[in-house]
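Re: weekly structure request thread

Next one in the queue (674 aa):
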Amino acid sequence: MKPTEPEPEEKETSPVKENKSIPPSSGNKLVLYLLPVLLAILAGYYTLQGDNDVVNTSPKRQLAVDMVAPLLPKYESEVVRIEPRQLLEPSPACTTPEFKAEGVHVLEAVENIQKFRDEKSVLLLLNGENEGVVYSWEVAQDCLYELTKAAALRLNGDPDYIANGIRLLNSDGKPITTAQELDTERVAYILFDFQLWVWSGVKVGYERNVDGIHMKTLSLSPIVFGIENFFTSDEADFAIDQGLESLGRSPVDSKEAPDGYHSDRTSFTAFLPDSAYTRDFRARTAKLARLPSPGYCERMQLLRYQTGQFFRKHEDYFSSKSFLEEKSTTLDEYIAWTKWASATIESLGDKVPTQFRKGQIMHPNFEDRTQWQHALLSAFLEDAAITHYFEEHAAVEWGTWIKENVDNRATGVLDQLVESKSYMFKDIVHAWEKRVQLEELNYSFPKKAPSAVSHYFRWIRWAKERVEIVGDKAPENIRTNGDDYPTYRMQFQTKLIEFVMTDNTKEEIEAKLGNGVYERLNDNKHVNDGLIQILRDVPALFDAVLASWTKRAGDQFIYSKPVQFQHFEPNRFVTLFLYLNDVPEGGETVFPYSKERLVVDITREGMEECSEGLAVPAKRLKAAFFYDQTGQNVLDPLSLHGGCPPARGDKFGANLFTWNVDADEGSNAWGFGG
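Done, posted below.
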């Protein structure tokens, strides 16, 4: 279950009514995590119940892999190999191409390739999107970098992120590096920096063939695909054979479940052991998702839902831990904006509409915590109703909370809102700008410098890729099986602290990083997240860490810190759920926020959300493929989903969770073993 939102502080209330309480997290949301070692221990403590247990006779199965051949250690195997990005390079001879149109749907190009070629046009879209921009372009021009940059800026891409590298991928998720490759389809997707590929939904019902696998779009928001031809009958049965005897009650990651278990999840699970079989599925899943490494996929997890067992709505990504632990500064940003807007209004004089002038209801005034805040939030609510803002952000409860407090004339509503849901602040300001209609009053939000923790995570991404690129020329100690190979594991944090303390005296560390830092390093060496804890307070430590590791890696591994980039941290990215048997009735996977319907009139005892949104039926040898993150690689709360209880019979399934990093290392970074 997700941690609940913080309770509102004691606030001065309106003389009419008190503020409504801040809404909790949406219902019974659970964040799934499973610990292979823990499950192996727990398996012996839980008795499997029910009359329909599958008897594990373990007959010989026809598999695509050799289960007898010796298995190499992971870091000596193909599991950790990474496919490097293929970044585009600028050319001084190129100029900015001619813009033609925006808001063009991908099907217009896909279904009219020759027309686009004849008109010397090309369609470019952001990662995972269905609409993009058309530019004039022909093969002889080449100039892919300039074309991509122009389109990225037109699509509101951040110039600072573009500076860190841009790529083009075709509609099959494969790199485009030549003009001839772009000419093949005349459609391309733009990815920034280390962004991971997201399949675009195109339209509900759209079908494509991906390396012999059938993929059909079931929902555009969240993005959900139905998958066929991914695995065989023997492979399905083998998964059950391998995991049946190890099944244990399914744990959850929740502050409301101190023992690791919760009544909102009653199914049984088991991670399958590392083998040629599970490694093959890791590789196949990564290939389907177009991830850079098989290691980005977890080992297969077997699930069993007996009649009446369920897993209520939850996200697969984790949020119970904060790597940054930054205090919210949005309230300060709000105050800064109101001061800027007020001063700008004064300088513009009569040019400003009357209702926005000083003393009027829409004049920004951070000291007015009632009338001004209510007017501003009323404008925001008006726009939100038109755009379905709260539904699109999985924040319906917050929309209700805002409206109730505005209607009740409560005090300090905006203060609490921006502290708890900071992402809404820019949209609130935009609602005000939309009404004042003066370009001079469009606010440019200042960018924060990336934190040292953000730099640390991005550097590991870069270093892993660099090891792959340098190959055999890299020192043995930093190759994938070397002692100093960069990982997201907590043990690597310990190693880096030791490097810094070895390379610098106490006096040098204190001079560079401040008094007391040497003692903190010494005390934190073997503490979970010991390095990250200090990086939060002492950003300059990252430079010392970088210098010490690079000293051992060599000049081929000199890293240039980017000025700005999108924060990233290890987390789950996309889930592939395999249906291993036919369920006589029930057992659907439900996505409450989707507007699509495959099955209607569902009633499942104990889980009312099964009647909401998209319900994917449990059909043997089919699969559901859905994203936990958006095309811009940020967590997507719309991915909320649940496992409905079988009304009759048992349901067997298998999870193949993928991450935005090596899955085992990501799990370790969250403290889940791995």
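The longest strand covers residues 651-659. The chain is about 30% helix and 15% strand.
Next request, please.
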